[in-house]
Structure formats: structure tokens, C-alpha cells
Amino acid sequence: MSEKSQIEAAARNLMRRFGEDALRQADIRITELEEHGEAAVLEFWRGVRGMVQCLLLGGGSSKH
Description:
Layout: H1 3-18, H2 22-35, H3 39-56
Helix pairs in contact: 1-2, 1-3, 2-3
């Protein structure tokens, strides 16, 4: 599975679990990763956050 596919899957999972609150949940994870210096995983979660934002705006993977 490509990283883009993994990002989209994680974003869709957050959307299923948290609905409209998914963006805030992604922000929480990003903040935690920043505090712990987890640079590699941080970039992944920034991608997830961007995908969640795109999905919430009615877009899909074709727009991201």
C-alpha cells in the first residue's frame, strides 16, 4: 500500500470514528507528535489532516 493510500485510509477511518470532529482529532495527534519529536510520523499525520480537511470540504483523493 502506498503512503498516499495509507493517508487516505487513515483519514477515512478518522471520519468514520469522529465525523465532523475528525479534523480536531488529527490536530490533537499532530500536537502530541510535535511534543514528542516524532518527525517521521508527524509528516504522515499532517498528510492525514490535509486529507480529512479535503474530505470534509466534499473533495476526495482526486483533489488531494
